[in-house]
Design goal:
Keywords: GTP-binding, Hydrolase, Nucleotide-binding. It holds the Pfam family ATP_bind_1. Belongs to the GPN-loop GTPase family. This is GTP-binding protein. The longest helix is centred in the C-terminal third of the chain and has 19 residues, at 177-195. This protein is of the alpha/beta class and 196 residues long. It is built from six helices and seven strands, in the order H-E-H-E-E-E-H-E-H-E-H-E-H. The protein is globular, with a radius of gyration of 19 Å. It has a seven-stranded mixed sheet with strand order 2-3-4-1-5-6-7, sandwiched between helices.
């Protein structure tokens, strides 16, 4: 078989391949994962939200999240093109402990995780961070500031969440595209630095 020289089209295709990166958006119940993915997705996001029933009222802790009427029961999905070469596929996990079995499948092929935390309910983040670490995913912390939540320093957050010094910590408002994009960019840069 005779090999032919690479054409301009071959070179263009080789140099312009899009890389798809699977990123998990995780966090405890009612921290804003569905909102975050809806804010960031360039396509209509896939949502598996269902109305919360009276039966769930005895299982899900609704303190601090009054007015919540729906919850994710499988996953959320969105897509975000960061550049001509990099596309992020965002997978949001359910936050309740009873859906933890979904995590094993969702972590397959994921490059990392953005862990959303509520500054008013930091203790609820421990189980989520433990799961992310159990599956060996590098992660960044994004503190989702809701209306009227206290602002805490990075040092306070690091100590409260027992984070390693290299773990990135950023703040965002899951409803705000600019601050949410900054959180994702922080995670992507962290993943790139680790890959070098």
């Amino acid at each position: 078989m005779v090999s032919r020289p690479a054409s301009d089209e071959d070179v263009y295709l080789r140099n312009n391949v899009q890389i798809a990166a699977k990123i998990l958006v995780v966090g405890h119940f009612a921290v804003g994962k569905t909102t975050f993915i809806g804010t960031m997705s360039e396509i209509p996001p896939l949502r598996t939200e269902e109305t919360m029933t009276q039966a769930a009222a005895h299982i899900d802790d609704l303190r601090g999240v009054q007015g919540k009427t729906t919850t994710t029961v499988a996953m959320d999905f969105g897509r975000l093109t960061l550049s001509d070469r990099l596309v992020l596929y965002l997978f949001g996990t359910p936050g309740q402990q009873r859906f933890v079995q979904v995590w094993e499948d969702m972590t397959r092929g994921a490059l990392g995780a953005l862990v959303l935390v509520d500054p008013e309910r930091l203790k609820e983040s421990f189980d989520v961070i433990d799961l992310v670490e159990q599956y060996g995913l590098p992660y960044a912390i994004s503190v989702n500031h809701f209306d009227g939540t206290p602002v805490r320093s990075d040092d306070e957050l690091r100590e409260a969440l027992d984070l390693l010094p290299e773990t990135p910590v950023v703040t965002c408002d899951a409803r705000d595209e600019k601050s949410s994009a900054n959180a994702l960019i922080t995670l992507v840069r962290y993943l790139q630095d680790r890959a070098r």
